[in-house]
Prior knowledge:
This protein has about 400 residues and is mostly helical. Helix 5 (about 125-140) runs antiparallel to helix 13. The protein is about 75% helix and about 5% strand.
Amino acid sequence: MIAFADLKEALTPKPSAQLYDVPLLYCMLMLIGVGFIMVTSASMPTADRLFGDIYHFTIRHGIFLALSFCLFWITTLVPMSWWKKANPYLLLIGLVLLLVVLIVGREVNGSTRWIPVGPFNIQASELAKLFFFSYIAGYLVRKREEVQENIKGFAKPIAVFAVYALLILLQPDLGTVVVMFVTTVGLLFLAGAKLWQFFALILTGVALVVGLIVLEPYRMARVVGFLEPWDDPFGKGYQLVQSLMAYSQGDWFGQGLGNSVQKLQYLPEAHTDFIFAVIAEELGFVGVLSILMVLGTLVFRALLIGQTALKNGKEYEGYLALAIGIWFAFQTMVNVGASAGILPTKGLTLPFISYGGSSLLMMTIATGILLRVDFETKMATKQATSRGGKR
């Protein structure tokens, strides 16, 4: 009887037996797989027109995928103590990159966001974004009481953000600034900042964004085109109109993989910013809903990992995981909202799916960090349980 009980206990899976978050890993792999297929499908007409090779973007995306998996594996092996110690230096590296891109950066579609490295381009703001979140997480650990008690502790990270935001706006790239702002505000709120400071910061941020839109004619044109795209369907509203037509043709199950009409030189940026419209047209409502559910699960796991880390006394790890979760969630919302006509166009990639090497690299690294945080939290809990059992 005792032997049977021991056998049953040995065969029963234990939650602590898995020292990494399996659902999170599966979500990332599914999104990367869907992304590779959809980038191939959406980019063929553009690749053929520009380079005479329908697989041009597919090959480049595959190269970045291989590099991403290598960096992902390395990141899961790096202790979180390294990130904690290195975050001030990473912040400085991010600042240097944002300065370098303004000097030697490559201009694409009127924006200077990319540093040429051989045949590829690195988007400086993508690296700076993760480095900034790492710094904010470290700051909240060092100055948590100051953040909660007086305006000085609240103002310091905002001042650092303002420097980063100014450099990114010079590229210009308002979308990345908005993502960083929302993530920073979210972390400060979770760290216990006073409500009046929180709301004052939100109102100030909204006022500044409105001001930046009004002062720049091209941003104002995007907002006007977003509000009434059908008033100028061949001008300011052209991209959104084509995107909405893609959505309308998707129906429940889509036109079938590879059968999108809008990607045939009608919808600009079909494989990058507006890839979700192609997904909607080819895979339909069911495909759209399925992908959103996977993205939602990934964000939920990220936030859960952060919350669990905080409960177990791992503050830096917890805040960084929460920052990554907020970042993924908000960027997904902006990308999907822009392609569906709910939000103005902002030029942000859809996590793990859109074509964009820098975005893919940094998001796989961020996911590697999440898995490392989860691993270290579970190891610490397991060791504490083992010590408690021995007593």
